[in-house]
Design a protein that fits this description.
It is found in: Membrane. The protein is mainly alpha-helical. It contains eight helices and six strands.
Length: 265
């Protein structure tokens, strides 16, 4: 089944996502032009380093766009509730619609989302059951790309041999120091913010709780079934194959799990 497109009309979200795209575009253009290509031509780095940077950049932007337009798990207007699962559904007090437990109503999007974690303005979308795996990939590859950029900035000045010829682009050559300082500053900001968010997301998956559930303290029921971390990660990513957890170019297929495990709170 093809993944449904979900588009949120929110100027604030467009602005936040625009900032992320600007940072990605800035580093994707200037880092190869100032560091990778010149040092590759003079034999200071290998082609593998160049390809790895572009692969990280590609995976980062792919997970960003897919997480922003993917349906997070929006409930249909008239959901069909199986008779055996009715006790695991409840009425939403905001939209007066039946929804499975662990769903939440997003006031910004105006509808309920299955297993909603939070609404993220940086992707202009909710993070829910169907796009949580893409959001985790976005956090992961943003950390990798930011760390890689900072390492290249550092090595350019303190480790690599000085370039023997000037950059063919006069503007880039004259403003090299300023361009790399801006890159390092943005890399530190992105790495610090995303690392904290990524850690929070991982802890939520390990404990099988969403950010909303943590804030509302609704998961203190000691009778709630606990699952191993491999199972919770497999449910988020839609596959038991761990190598596929890192690939954003695929379709997620929900795993069939006992309903009391999936929706009991």
């Amino acid at each position: 089944m093809a993944q449904r497109i979900h588009f949120v009309v929110d100027p604030q979200g467009w602005f936040c996502m625009g900032l992320i795209i600007f940072v990605w575009l800035y580093n994707t253009i200037f880092i190869p032009k100032v560091i990778l290509f010149p040092h590759y031509e003079e034999g200071n780095i290998s082609v593998v380093a160049v390809l790895c940077y572009y692969f990280c950049s590609l995976f980062c932007i792919a997970s960003l766009f897919r997480a922003s337009v993917a349906d997070p798990g929006k409930l249909p207007d008239n959901p069909k509730i199986p008779i055996t699962e009715r006790e695991y559904w409840e009425l939403c007090s905001k939209c007066n619609m039946m929804r499975p437990k662990r769903s939440h109503h997003c006031s910004r999007c105006g509808h309920c989302v299955r297993r909603m974690d939070h609404h993220c303005p940086w992707i202009n979308n909710c993070v829910g059951e169907d796009n949580h795996w893409l959001f985790l990939q976005l956090c992961f590859y943003t950390q990798i790309l930011s760390s890689y950029t900072l390492i290249l900035d550092f090595c350019h000045y303190y480790y690599f041999l000085p370039l023997k010829k000037e950059n063919w682009d006069v503007f880039v050559f004259r403003h090299e120091l300023a361009l790399l300082r801006i890159s390092a500053f943005m890399g530190l900001i992105m790495l610090g913010g995303i690392s904290r968010l990524f850690y929070t997301q991982l802890m939520g998956i390990f404990t099988d709780t969403t950010s909303i559930e943590k804030m509302s303290n609704c998961c203190e029921d000691i009778s709630r079934p606990r699952k191993p971390w491999q199972q919770t990660f497999s449910e988020v990513f839609g596959t038991h194959w761990k190598i596929l957890w890192f690939i954003p170019f695929r379709q997620r297929q929900p795993l069939r799990v006992p309903y009391h495990f999936a929706n009991h709170v």
